[in-house]
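User: quick one, fold this
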Amino acid sequence: MDIKPIKSETDYNLALKRLETIFNAETGTIESDEADVLGLLIDEYEKKHFPIEAPDPIEAIKIRMEEMHLKQNDLINELGGKNRVSEILNRKRKLTVEMIRNLTIKLNLSPELLINDYQLTR
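Assistant:
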């Protein structure tokens, strides 16, 4: 096992290629340990060089609704009415603290994600 830090795109590509080769190694083997360490190194390199920004609150709500197979009507109690749900999801109105609390519970989203600012449409 010859593992070293990933410092360049070449190192990254070589690490990916090696991980692909040993990915299905039997647990408890040297190759399995190498795969675990390479996975961590690759993950850190990707976080630094290919960051993925969190979606804005409205996109996060829509994504979670899709994942949970929910319709707009399913959020009426959390957002305060059918029209209010439509206004929120169409970016005509901002979320309130009470709405954020309700959505945190209903959709299992972090409040930190939901309190982020987003633009309204006019």
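User: anything notable?
Assistant: The chain has seven helices and no strands.
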